[in-house]
Structure formats: C-alpha cells, structure tokens
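In the laboratory, one determines a bound structure by crystallizing the protein with its ligand and collecting diffraction data. In a computational setting the workflow is compressed into a single prediction: the sequence and the ligand go in, and a structural description comes out. We illustrate the idea with iron/sulfur cluster.
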Amino acid sequence: MTEKITAKDINEQDKALLSDLQDALANCMKCGNCMEVCPVYKEVGKEAAVARGKLSLMEGVLKGSIPLSAAFDAAMSKCVSCKACTAKCPCGVPADELILRGRQAAVKARGLHPIKKKVFALLKNRHLFDFSLRMAGIFGPLSFKKIPGKMAALARFPMPGMDYKRVTAPFASTPLRSQYPEVIKVDRPTMRVGFFTGCTINYIYTDVGQSVINVLKENNIEVTMPSMQHCCGTPVYMSGDVDSAKILAKHNIETFDSYNFDYIVSACGSCTEAFRIEFPHLFHDDPKMSAMTEKLAKKTYEISEFLIDIVKIDKTKLGPVNATVTMHDPCHMARGIKVTKQPREVLKSIPGLHFVEMKAPDRCCGSGGSFSLGNYELSRKINDKKIADIASTNADTVVTSCGTCRMHLTDGLFQNNMNQDALHVIQLLDRSYKAGHQK
Amino acid sequence: MEKHHINALKEIVGEENVLTSVEDLYCYSYDATPGHAHMPDAVVSPANTAETSKILKLANENHIPVYTRGSGTNLSAGCVPTKGGIVLLMTRLNKILEVDLENLVAVAEPGVIVADLNKEIASLGLIYPPDPGTVATATLGGTVAENAGGLRGLKYGVSKHYVMGLEVVLANGDIMNTGGKNVKDVSGYDMTKLFTGSEGTLCVITKIISKLVPAPEAKKAMMAIFKDLDNAGKAVSAIIAAKIIPATLEIMDNATIRTVEDYAKVGLPLDAEAVLLIEVDGNPIVVEKEAEKVMEALKANHADLVQIAKDDAERDKLWAARRAALPALAKLRPTTYVEDATVPRNKVPDFLREVSSIAKRHNVTIGTFGHAGDGNMHPTIVCDIRIPEEMERVYQAMDEMFKAAIALGGTLSGEHGIGLGKLPWMEQQHGLVTMNAMRSIKRALDPNLILNPGKLVGEC
Ligand SMILES: Cc1cc2nc3c(=O)[nH]c(=O)nc-3n(C[C@H](O)[C@H](O)[C@H](O)COP(=O)(O)OP(=O)(O)OC[C@H]3O[C@@H](n4cnc5c(N)ncnc54)[C@H](O)[C@@H]3O)c2cc1C
Ligand code: SF4
Ligand code: SF4
Ligand code: SF4
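The predicted complex, in structure-token form:
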C-alpha cells in the first residue's frame, strides 16, 4: 500500500514548500489542548488524528525521520478543516492551515504519479482548453477517482461525498444561473450587487439561490450573477492542489472585478471566506493580482451579514413564519469569517419564529469539504452527534448557512429517521417576506 | 522487540489496537515536554484490566520496557519511550463505572477525561476538585499518576487527597487492589498513596476510586495590583492569617504582567510588580464575609488597586488576565517550558525575585505566575530550542532556579512530576539515603525494570 515515494524523492521545490513551514510548526508546544475540540480525534482516538499529531508528522517529514508516504497523506486528509484546534491553541498555531499545507506537500509528491502528471500537463497548456475542459481535467481524476462509472457524468462538479448509501440532494434540472437573466433589474435600485453563487447553489440548492434573489429584490437591490463565474476552487485547494486552485481563483477575481459592483454577496461561509481570506492569501506575493483581490475582499459579504450590517433590513415588512428553529453554525462561518450573530438576528426578526439554541451550535457537522468523500463512515459518526443535539432541541427546522452542511445534515436526519427540515437561513427570511405581502 | 512479540500483542488486544507503522509510532514519541522524543516499537491500547495484565506479563517475561500513557499532556517527559518498547495507551478504558451518592465516591477507569467526570457529576451538585490547566484533555489515570494539582489546590488539595483506592496491574501482570470506599483506613502500608504520583514507574492504574465533594454554592473573585512585590507577599500572608482559605490565590510577576498586557490589553499597569487574583467560594453568606476580609487584608497591605467582581461577567474579566498568562507567554517564542518549582508560601516573593535576577543574569525570558496560596510557582521560560547557544543559557538558568527553590526549603515540582526533566536535581533535594530507599521500592515492585525505566528515580 505504501507508495514508494520517500523524503529523498521529493524535488527541491517540494522541500521548499515544506521547509518554510518549519518556523510555523516549531510554535506548537505540544500541549495537546487541541484534543479537547478536534471532532476527528474524538472519533478516532489516535494521536495521528489530532492537530498535535499531524503537525508532528509534518515535522517528521521535514527532518527526514518519516517518509512522505501514503499513510502521511491519509493522516493529513483526516481533517475537516473546522478550525476548532486553531481557535483553542494557546500558541496561536494555525493548525488547520498548516495541515492543508501538509496535504499540498503530499499532493506535490504524488505529482510524480502518472495521473497527476497528466493533469499538470493539461494545465500547462491551459490556453488550448476551454474552461469546462479544465474543470473535467482537474476535478475528474483528483476528486472523483473513487466514484463508480455511473457518476462519471457528474465528475465536472467538485462535490464531496457520493457514497452509495448516502443521501445527496439531486442536481437541479436547470442550474440557477440558467433560470434567470444575468442581471435581475429592479425599479430605482439602491445598489448593485454581484451574487457569487458557488457550485452548490448553482447546481443543487437552487432554492437557496432563488431566496437570495427574492430577498435582495425585496430590498430594491439589483442582482447580477456573472455568467462567467465558476467554482471558487476551495475543494481543490482543500485537497492540496494549489496550482489548480489559483487558476480558478484568478478567473473568478478577474470576472467579478470587471463588473465594478457595489458589493459581492454569497450565501455560504466557505465561499465568502474564499473571496475574503483565501484569495488574498493565494496572491499575496503577486502585486498586480493582490491589489484587485484586496479590493474585492473588502466588498464581499455573506448574505445574513450583508442584510443586517449593510442593508439594515426593515423588519416591519416581515410576516409570520410559525416554526421552531435551531441553527448549526458552519465552521467557515463561526471560525472562518466569524459571522454568527447576524444569521441569528435574521431569524429573531421573523415574527412567529421560535428560536432554540442547540448545544455547541458551532461544532462541526462532519462534512468538511472533500473530507467526507474519503471518510464517509467517520464523518457520519461526527454528524450523528450533531443530529442528536438537533433532536434534543425539539425544533422542527434546522437552518444553516452552507450548502455542504445542509446536505450533510439532511443525510444525517434521514439516516437517523428524523423528519426535521434542513434549510438555509435565507429561505425562512424569504418565506417571511412572502407572508408579509399577504398581511 | 521481535515480530512474534507484536503478534502476541495483537492476539491480546486485537489487530487494530496495536500500532506499528512508522507514522503512528512517531506520534507517540513525545508528550508535552519540549526536547524529549524517542520512537517506541509498538503502541498498544488495551480494553480492560485483563488485557492490561496479559500485556504486562508478556513484557515482563521478555524484558520489554512499557511506557504507560494517558493523554500525553505531562510536562516531565513521563510518556516518552526513551528505550523503545511498548507505549501502553490507556484511553480506551474510559468508563465511569459508578457514582455512589451515599458515600460520595466515584469509581472510574483511568482513560476518563477529568472534565468529563466533572460534567457527569455536576447535575448531582458534586465536584472532583483537582483541576490542572489541562482538565479538558488530561485523563484521570494520568492525573493520579502525576498527583496533579491545579488552581484550587490551596483549599481543596491535589489528586492524592481524593484518591481513596486503586486497582492496579503490577509489572509481572498481577492485579492488585488498594484502599476502598472507607474514609478511615489504616490497614497496612498506604499503597494507594504510594501509587498516586508514581508516574507509571511502579504499576499501571486500571481503576480509580475517588472522593467527591459538594459543589460550592457561591464564588466571589477579587483582583489586586501591587507596585511593590513585598506588599503582595504580605497580603497573601495576611489573608491566610485572617483564617481565610481562598479556593484560588494566584500571583503574576512583572514579566508576566507586561506580556499579558501587551497581548490581551486588559488594563494592567506595566510597572506593577505583582497582581493577585483571589477567589473565595462556599456558602453565600460566608463567601460575602470572607470577601470583605480579603479586601481589608489587601488594602491594609497597600494594594495600589483592588477590584471585586459583582457578577459573572465581571468575574470573567478579572480572570481574563490570569487565563491569558500562559497563552501570552507561549506566543512570544517557539519553545515554552512551564516549570513548577514550589516554595513555602512565605518565600514566594524571595523566589520571584531570585527568578527575575536569574533571568537577567543569563539573558533568558522568564515570566512567573502561579499559585501564591500554596507556593506553587510556574516560572515559564520561553526560548527557541533550535538555537544551541540560547539553550545553553536556558539550562543554566533552570539549574540555578531549581537550586534556588531547594535553598528556600522548596521542592523541584509541585504538580508536574519529575519524569526525566527534573531528574538531575533529585539527589540534591532528597539526598542519597532517600533516593536509595525510593530505588529499593522500585526494584521490589518492578524487578525487571520494565515500567517507565529511567524516570523519576533514574537508572537503578
Ligand atoms: C498547558 C498545560 C498546563 C498544565 N497545567 C497543569 C496544572 O495546572 N497542574 C498539574 O498538575 N499539571 C498540569 N499540567 C501537566 C499535565 O496536564 C498533568 O500532568 C496531567 O495529569 C497529565 O495527564 P495525562 O492524561 O496527559 O497523562 P500523561 O501525560 O499521558 O501521563 C502522565 C504520567 O502518568 C503516567 N500514567 C498515565 N496513565 C497512567 C496509568 N493509567 N497508570 C499508571 N501510570 C500512568 C505516564 O506514564 C506518565 O508518566 C499541564 C500541562 C500542560 C501542557
Ligand atoms: S493546541 Fe496548539 S500548541 Fe497545543 S498541541 Fe495543539 S496545535 Fe500544538
Ligand atoms: S481543523 Fe478541525 S478536524 Fe482538522 S485537526 Fe483541527 S480540530 Fe481537527
Ligand atoms: S460542512 Fe459545514 S460544519 Fe462541516 S466543515 Fe464545512 S462548514 Fe464545517
């Protein structure tokens, strides 16, 4: 099983990638505080599963004590990137980011692998291919090699987790962006925003996208969904493929920049984080891209955050929604962009809605991007804890702000024979506006 | 270790509970102590006492070293498998077996996390008081084996005051029970106390019978800032002399104050020589009275500023500075040594002054905070273990620091244990006679020297 690639085989470039990590790794004092919060460690119970162990393994690779093996790769992939360790760390070690770097190193080493070589060759000649071909080229072999033939048609879409037993939402017959004109006009618009849909909302949860559009229209905002936008690249970035992630990021940045929007909104913590934190990070040493990226980062908002902080919605227009609702904070909302108050404020402004807080609402739901692709059983176990917490609130609806979370929660509710609805926060607000019109 | 030993271990605990890949072994080569690491040959996690016994029998017959491990958060290299062999991971034994409300006793397995025990009994109005900084991660077995203390040590004592009985497996695999639920028990040598704090060198603990106490109904926190260290010392003595035993009586020195202020901006004056954090707890009426007396003692000893928390939010604010002490110091430099040299309560100011002059002399950064009430100090040295020249100075400073503690009638370790880290100074503190007596005990219980060999009493 162990791949024959050892530390010796890594070329100079890979070594450079890891060695600038040395200082960051040295800051871990091995106190083990991360054991308290790591959802993966709680299930697996082995040191290699917790941040302290993963960072040590990276140190081991750097020192040449252990090989850049398949087992190292597997250890790095056992992380849902929930940032709980980073939030807990007394030394301020950004463990989740470092683990990602470890994964990138493993990917680089695996670059010697034939499939990987082919992808890189493709990318090098990228001008010869149109974008969709690149998508297939990048995502096909990397993210979907474990998926059986009949799913092959979906391979151009980087969604995690297509386990046989698993409930995933069906792909929409018409993607969101094909349901609307590019620019959705309103009379006397107060502002012009660009809606970054992300893959999940465009291809699967079009209902969320419709709600976003409805709610923005209610507030006299002109919405544009740039037709050239594409996947934010987070899935490939998370699986360690920085080069491909950069191509996707650059494409999105240039696309959105060309419209000169007042604001950019998205309905997902991870997507917002991509624009606000990851893109600037990817291009920090590229002066030309960096300026453009920073400018976009400053005007990007998550939808609840946008409605509460910028639009300051008029709550008198809202009608009653009779539901008992609890909320799951996606990791990338809670610890990524740190937006937890605004979605609650949205819910609390809806008349008739009874909000109940669940235990540890910001504990990861176990989906973690492509994590659940290779680790479904484990991610199911983490999710079962979340489902139990939802059950104990007696809520009839659980809302969240991330498509991946919603999908994983839906799956979990189904597997545990529960019939609560799993929705996006914005869908309840949309309902409330509709009820307001009937008043 | 040979292949057939590994196979025999797999037979005992099952294939999936024996780790041998180089990646997994690497992850058990260290604990929370800087500068110590060594690879084991196998990591074995038993499910129960019977399996533990079989593993030890096998190890003993084949002279394979065994390093027992809980969560690996100790600060004395107690878990580092310096001679290879087996890391015996106790975290699968994680059940709370019984909460006996009539005797106020809990019976639990060693892998239970201390905070989980407290969560379980909180609804019953009870607490298990030993609360090291790592309550949320450390195991009950690890805290008993280290005789861990914590912030509430002054009033509530440390682990040994709560352990009433144990089930342990001896080096040869024999299973032995000590103590029990009796509040009074003088039958024979007190083996329970001997094993508590034995750091995995005498036995493997497989069950713990521990005392529980009623949770205090009320708490009151106070903070005092002193421009003069001696006044802080006198205030501590005055509080105790007023016959008040606070649950918490913490001190931070000037180096720590400056670091905390720089990091957390909690509003501490940079020229303060000491900050005291005091918390009294118990019956609400008594708590009010005691808090009053504490405030009087603080003012009488010329505290430059005193504050008392009116509610939970204010309590949190007062605690924020103390909570920030370690994170603030740890962020200064890559390597952090949290030491725990301890001196008699009235010697705390002398010791703090010693430490800051040692730090200056060797040009080393040391911030000291700790439990002023029980004299248990945490001189925290921050440095970079990758710079040999700096480490030379750090070791010299450590050496002088430990010697200073001993000279003041203190001890090397108040709660973190000896392990390997403080071994070089053991004879200096105890003398040869005591060391030999300890080594005789070790040899009597572990003739083949397989349990955590080389630690606590050194080679024997
Ligand atoms: C940031 C930080 C703060 C800390 N604060 C405190 C504090 O305030 N007070 C304090 O006392 N300590 C403190 N510690 C030290 C540490 O948390 C304690 O020593 C704790 O008791 C260790 O528990 P553990 O489960 O991690 O044990 P481990 O580190 O796994 O083991 C500790 C020792 O016990 C032995 N051992 C473990 N389990 C068993 C068993 N079942 N049978 C026999 N021997 C066993 C091991 O061989 C080892 O020698 C702190 C550590 C850190 C990193
Ligand atoms: S909490 Fe931070 S310093 Fe502590 S072990 Fe985890 S990563 Fe390292
Ligand atoms: S990011 Fe989450 S899953 Fe990954 S190591 Fe940290 S706590 Fe564990
Ligand atoms: S799916 Fe949701 S909870 Fe899970 S990792 Fe992503 S954001 Fe976190």
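The two ends of chain A are 65 Å apart (CA to CA). Keep in mind that any predicted model is a hypothesis to be tested, not a measurement.
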